[in-house]
Amino acid sequence: MLICSSAVANAYSALEAGATHIDTSVLGIGERNGIAPLGAFLARMIVAAPEYVKRKYDLHRLKDIENIVAEAVHITGFCAFTHKAGIHSKAILNSPSTYEIINPEDFGMSRYVHFAHRLTGWNSIKSRVEQLGLHMTDAQVKLLTTKIKAMADVRPLAIDDADSIIRAFHLDLQEKDTAETWVN
């Protein structure tokens, strides 16, 4: 990655100095002698001149090109704009620009806060609870977060796994509330 960072910086400096062409690679495949990855180079360019870059380049096509190359060389997963650590995710949920200098939608992508992970924070779980249309107090969400993190320490959780844990936890809360209502 250090080479890629240097390659992007060098390519951008060359552009600023008047270069009319820049050699790039897709996903860094075949990179030799500091050839900049196209996606990283375009990301650097959009920071400096967003309107120009959006007008000149069809950024949504970049994802298609990268997917074609990734499939051809059997690379799976693309995690740009994916956030999972607790404090990091909280910041993204509150203000995406805290960690994202560029907008994922400009590149045909979307932001994803990964909540089915051992590093998840309670704000990510709270966000998912709200997405599922469920209602819990912060204390309940914190308890649920502890449960999800413990499960994720045992084995990787899929989104459906985490959603099942969330729904089961919510159902248990409702049953306890109903039982307490009957007792009182």
Supply the key terms.
elongated, two-stranded parallel sheet, 4 strands, single chain, 184 residues, 2 domains
Descriptive account of the structure:
With 184 residues, this protein is mainly α. The chain has two domains: 2-72, no CATH class; 83-183, no CATH class. Helix content is 58%, strand content 4%. It has eight helices and four strands, in the order H-E-E-H-H-H-E-H-E-H-H-H. The chain has helices spanning 2-16, 38-48, 50-56, 60-72, 86-94, 122-131, 138-154, 159-183, and strands at residues 24-25, 36-37, 82-83, 112-113. Strands 1-2 form a two-stranded parallel sheet. A two-stranded parallel ribbon has the order 3-4. Helix 5 (86-94) links the parallel strand 3 and strand 4 (112-113). Helix 1 (2-16) crosses helix 2, helix 5 packs across helix 6 and helix 6 packs across helix 7. The longest helix has 25 residues, at 159-183. The protein is elongated, with a radius of gyration of 22 Å. The termini are far apart. The model has no long low-confidence stretch (mean pLDDT 80).
Summarize the amount of helix as a percent range: 55-70%
Order of helices and strands: HEEHHHEHEHHH
What's the total count of β strands? 4
Strand content: under 5%
**Number of separate domains:** 2
Name the structural class: mainly alpha
Number of helical elements: 8
Low-confidence stretches: none
Mean of the pLDDT scores? Answer: 80
Distance N to C terminus: 62 Å
| Gyration radius over CA | 22 Å
State the strand order across the main sheet: 1-2
Question: Which descriptor suits the 3D outline?
Answer: elongated
Instruction: Please summarize the sheet with the most strands.
Output: 2 strands, parallel
Organism: Trichoderma semiorbis
Pfam family, one: HCS_D2
Keywords: Transferase
Protein name: Pyruvate carboxyltransferase domain-containing protein
